[in-house]
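Supplementary notes for students who missed Thursday's class. We covered one full example, reproduced here. Read the sequence, then the structure, then the short commentary at the end.
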Amino acid sequence: MRISLPKWLKVPKQTNIPQISDNLIQKEKMINQENKYFRLMLEEIDKLQDEENRKFAHTLLSNVPDYFFSVPASSSGKYHPSNDLGNGGLVRHSISVVRMLGHLLEPYGYYDFDDEQKELLKIAALFHDCMKSGTQEEYEKNKHTKFLHPLYAANFIMTTAIKNGYPYEKALFIYNTVISHMGQWNTKGDAILPTPKTLDQKVLHLADYLASRKDINMEFGEEYFDEEDVVFDDTSTVTAYEKEKENV
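Structure (token representation):
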């Protein structure tokens, strides 16, 4: 299913679109090398085989809000597995979705994605929650999850692609996959998010859903997960999956 860009997407008015800069990427690597969760994301990105996709993912990583590297995927801990909790939990969750996606795509004959589409799905998985609490400024004012965070993330991805000359068709594939990752948990008041219709949308939603189940836990090792960091202090990042089961 192809979709048109939403009216709220702010497309930069540029005639000469700058290309992704290797120097900028190297600079951002140096700036963020002390953040181990930045490095963890970088390790996943560097597994991408296509250089254009890899550079684009580097650029996305260098521009996500700062909170992405520190917040848990769920501070309530009611339904998410332990690896999603505590410092860096949202990063671990994002990588868990990538791992789950790999498991779903491995058996032959269920999903007919080519190698290029699999890489785009991986980028979508890595950044599907990258704007979970909105912009950095919005997060500093209110740390709660934004119900419309799939649209925030899709907008961020598409705008970054346009600014950096990343191919529109690739960006649209990622955008189209990210906007519906909440699946059936897609309504809140008058707000309605898209539901998965295409195979790429369905497989990302399924990977996200399975990776957030409390009884499915991914291993990250002591360097990237310390159970002592897990503190349930509020419900600022409770997902729609959790809200569906209990009003928090």
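Commentary. Residues 43-224+234-245 form one domain. The first strand starts at residue 187 and ends at 188. If anything here is unclear, bring it to office hours.
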